[in-house]
Write a structure and sequence with these properties.
The chain has two helices and four strands, in the order H-E-E-E-E-H. By secondary structure, it is α+β, with helices and mostly antiparallel strands. The chain has a four-stranded antiparallel sheet, with helices on one face. Helix 1 runs antiparallel to helix 2. The radius of gyration is 13 Å and the shape is globular.
Length: 84
């Protein structure tokens, strides 16, 4: 198996964990532009933040995010740290 395929698979796993973490905390994700994901409160539909993804970065696919999402993203970040 080549490195690029492993990186793609890891990114898929991370994005899945990211979406589950948002859902588990009553948020929903909406694809915006240029790798940005808008994060919305599921109850009010208000935008509460963003997450910036950069494909091809493997375990560092999460490039940036709103600081108010730190606690929600903590388990995802801990998972990613295993692969740094």
């Amino acid at each position: 198996m080549n490195h690029e395929k492993l990186s793609d698979e890891l990114e898929d796993i991370i994005v899945g964990k990211l979406l589950r973490a948002l859902n588990d905390n009553d948020y929903r994700a909406e694809i915006e532009t240029d790798g940005y994901i808008g994060v919305f409160d599921s109850m009010t539909d208000n935008k509460v933040g963003f997450i910036k993804l950069v494909a091809g970065n493997g375990s560092e696919i999460i490039s940036d995010y709103s600081t108010n999402l730190e606690e929600v993203l903590k388990p995802v970040q801990e998972f990613c740290e295993q692969y740094y």
